[in-house]
Amino acid sequence: MRSPILDYLDAIFEGTAHVTSGATADYIPDLAAADPDRAAVALCTVNGTVYASGDADHRFSIQSMSKPFAYALALEEHGVARVLEHVGVEPSGEAFNELSLDRETGRPLNPMINAGAIATHALVAQDEDDGVDRVLRFFSTLTGRDVEVDESVAASEMSTASRNLGLAYLLEATGGLARHPRAAVEGYVRQCAASVDVRDLALMAATLANGGVQPQTGEQVVCRETTRQVLSVMASCGMYDAAGDWFTAVGIPAKSGVAGGIIGVLPGQVGLAVFSPRLDAHGNSARGVAMMERMSDDMGLHLMEAG
Ligand code: GLN
């Protein structure tokens, strides 16, 4: 029998088709050329059952949704204290690619903005040969399949990476980068170009919802403390300068990516993933936000709502 959850996701997909505002990311040529009308939504329970609707098999680059997972790897490898020496946990209230570091410490404010994500990637991938592979292996453990880099997207982003290179050199100047700036950006860009679909993302989100245990394999992929740290930072910083709007309206930890994906995590319950390439002024998927708002309302997901 067809699950009512699938009918529900179809309704979310169809009920947000009118949201055509925004535009594909313009600063990465490959993303600018994406088909703007594709869309998908997926939900994964903490039992590991995945439901999806729309273009659920369409793969796109993970982009900034890689950041919480790279942060999780850094925390597992180095511990919270060492990672905090390199990257803070304060919301920046600024755009994702802002050229900003904390005035007093010289650290990036958090690991969800590009400056913090480049510093985090460098912590995980200090070893030149194995850096990106380690991140990809981790994504593969989370999704249960071999995740690969979309080389076209990676090359496209590297061709217009001046801003991220600028950030990396700034980080090097303040002593906050564990690798050469160019290598750190190349690795970070490849991390962001990992190719996934909404099912993969829902499962990755569900692993965070499930205390760091991948729900299909039962493997504890990250510890509970790491999971808590990652979800806390997603809640306060995951949606950049729209983090306050997001948390009041949707009320769950989340992370967006400029290819049009958004993941959301309701601890103990579900992982959600949506995709639609047109972005709003903050760089978050416009229809994706609409899909998440509806699901949060319908299912009463907001963490600040009692009962
Ligand atoms: N790779 C992208 C960048 O660095 C990621 C940004 C994003 O998804 N918000 O610009």
Q: What does this entry look like structurally?
A:
The structure is a single chain. By secondary structure, the protein is α+β, with helices and mostly antiparallel strands. It has helices spanning 4-15, 29-32, 67-86, 114-124, 131-143, 151-158, 162-173, 181-192, 198-209, 224-237, 243-249, 286-299; strands at 40-45, 50-54, 60-61, 195-196, 254-256, 261-266, 270-275. Helices cover 45% and strands 10% of the residues. The strands form 2 sheets. The protein has a 5-stranded antiparallel sheet. It has a two-stranded antiparallel sheet with strand order 3-4. Strand 5 (254-256) and strand 6 form a beta hairpin. The longest helix is centred in the first third of the chain and has 20 residues, at 67-86.
Q: What order do the helices and strands come in, and which of them pair?
A:
Blueprint: H1 4-15, H2 29-32, E1 40-45, E2 50-54, E3 60-61, H3 67-86, H4 114-124, H5 131-143, H6 151-158, H7 162-173, H8 181-192, E4 195-196, H9 198-209, H10 224-237, H11 243-249, E5 254-256, E6 261-266, E7 270-275, H12 286-299
Antiparallel strand pairs: 1-2, 1-7, 3-4, 5-6, 6-7
Bound molecules: glutamine (GLN).
Assign the CATH class of the largest domain.
Alpha Beta
**How far apart are the termini?**
30 Å
Question: What's the architecture of the largest domain, going by CATH?
Answer: 3-Layer(aba) Sandwich
Oligomeric nature of the chains: single chain
Low-confidence stretches: none
Bound molecules: glutamine
Average the pLDDT over all residues and give the rounded result: 95
